[in-house]
């Protein structure tokens, strides 16, 4: 085999592209993929539509399981959004399935950007943010894969710290 030392690292692979092409990749190239970052964002189809995403999260998750079974040396990571407006607790808990599939999962607290449609959505309550973050934190302590929690908006982080007396560490 020519150039056996070359490996592939895919830093950002849109989930719909993953679904379209991953099963078509020739085995001689797929086995060289050592790292893939697939930002799944949610497993709720309803929320993915509201986020303007064009893929089925559960289908992506199933195909990732298939790929990881076939190529166990590939590290696959994802990013998820939680506390998205309209996300109910059942949808959130369902999205936590990624913790058992991906080698690393980063959970980002929803933070609306001024220029997006989502900036006009009503936020869930701060108690919901607290419950979801605490649930994720507790699960992540017992999970075999890496989990990172990002309260990227300092306003939310300070709100939780002040109201509930929690000092957040970087996970």
Structure write-up:
The chain has 171 residues and is α/β, with parallel strands linked by helices. It is built from seven helices and five strands; from the N terminus they run E-H-H-E-H-H-E-H-E-H-E-H. Strands 1-2-3-4-5 form a five-stranded parallel β-sheet, covered by helices on one side. Helix 6 (126-142) links the parallel strand 4 (104-109) and strand 5 (146-150). It is elongated. The model has no long low-confidence stretch (mean pLDDT 87).
The secondary-structure element order is: EHHEHHEHEHEH
| Spatial shape | elongated
Rg, Cα atoms, Å: 17 Å
- For the record, give the distance between the C-alpha atoms at the N and C termini, rounded to a whole number: 41 Å
Low-confidence stretches: none
- Structural class of the helices, strands and pairings? alpha/beta
Number of helices: 7
Mean pLDDT across residues: 87
Strand content: 15-25%
């Amino acid at each position: 085999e020519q150039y056996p030392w070359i490996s592939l690292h895919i830093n950002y692979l849109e989930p719909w592209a993953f679904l379209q092409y991953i099963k078509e990749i020739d085995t001689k190239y797929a086995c060289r993929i050592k790292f893939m970052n697939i930002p799944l964002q949610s497993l709720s189809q309803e929320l993915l539509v509201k986020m303007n995403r064009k893929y089925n999260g559960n289908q992506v998750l199933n195909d990732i399981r298939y790929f990881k079974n076939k190529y166990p040396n590939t590290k696959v990571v994802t990013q998820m959004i939680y506390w998205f407006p309209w996300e109910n607790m059942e949808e959130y808990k369902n999205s936590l399935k990624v913790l058992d599939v991906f080698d690393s999962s980063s959970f980002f607290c929803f933070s609306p950007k001024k220029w997006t449609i989502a900036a006009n959505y009503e936020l869930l309550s701060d108690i919901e943010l607290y419950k979801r973050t605490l649930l994720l934190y507790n699960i992540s302590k017992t999970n075999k894969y890496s989990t990172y929690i990002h309260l990227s908006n300092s306003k939310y982080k300070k709100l939780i710290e002040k109201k509930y007396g929690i000092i957040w560490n970087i996970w």
